[in-house]
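Render this sequence as a predicted structure.
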Amino acid sequence: MSVAELKERHKVATETVNSLRERLKQKRVQLLDTNVAEYARAQGRAPVTLGPTDLVCCRTLQGHTGKVYSLDWTPEKNRIVSVSQDGRFIVWNALTSQKTHAIKLPCAWVMTCAFAPNGQSVACGGLDSVCSIFSLNSTIDKDGNVQVSKMLSGHKGYVSSCQYVPDEDTRLITGSGDQTCVLWDITTGLRTSVFGGEFQSGHTADVLSVSINGSNPRLFISGSCDSTARLWDTRVASRSVHTYHGHEGDVNAVKFFPDGNRFGTGSDDGTCRLFDIRTGHELQVYYEPHGVNEIPPVTSIAFSISGRLLIAGYSNGDCYVWDTLLAQVVLNLGSLQNSHESRISCLGVSADGSALCTGSWDTNLKIWAFGGIRRVT
């Protein structure tokens, strides 16, 4: 068979796949006769009410000299790790604002960080295509350097995201610009499984974010520049369990809902979306209209401990608190006093749900405390 014939067959097959995909999309639309917000309104559910004093900035963490790219809370809620364009990761005491560690990284171009479940190690990754593990118990020299405990090498593109498997200090999942996700054994430094890449069911563009299911750690979600999110089972690396369509831009952030049955996404198209992993359906779109030709991308998302609130950071400095049920913005942290002065690059809710931390290109992190019951509900 000639090259020309192969190209023609490939063209016909591509057209057939696109046609089937469009038919499936139309069928989904026909089956989805409502969404979460419409159903909640029909049940008479009242929206959450949050005033400017119900979520206040109680701490500003200053110490980075470059854009903050990523942050993570420890399970015991009182420590935060952040990484910045300044080439350092800093561990903060969230209660006192004090820095407990400020460690210089081997590669200054860092993009992601994660605390180990025991809170004694930190993982960092970036443009060097390596995920480096640091022990916080290691000796720090006078220049702020510490020896890397383990280097997880194997990706062929930048490491965009990383997360430890819940309750396991020796297993980690990374997402990369090489279009794959990898499950690592930290003890050996070897790849346990590779998700995507040469497989047809993998992402077709850079993987930007991952989120592991807290209820079932065998499942995780990945978001990609191919405008899709994919559900993976760590026991079956050869193919994704399901692919979720709907976004019209890069999927910058994914996060599992607290019950593990749903997950949220944030995208360059300016929307957040809620999907159900049991049905594979999109449940809700969260979008706030802006000015003409002004659609700020969503950079990061997090859920409150109950899931009733969805917090989304945007490239224009806005940070919307959404009522997940009614798809309404109940508060914009970007409009409050002491808000960030630049792009919201990362955010996260503490393990007990009492506080929110946001990181920004203005080099600062801010801790927001929930007033009243002091708990995100």
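Summary. The longest strand covers residues 55-61. Residues 373-377 have pLDDT under 50 and may be disordered.
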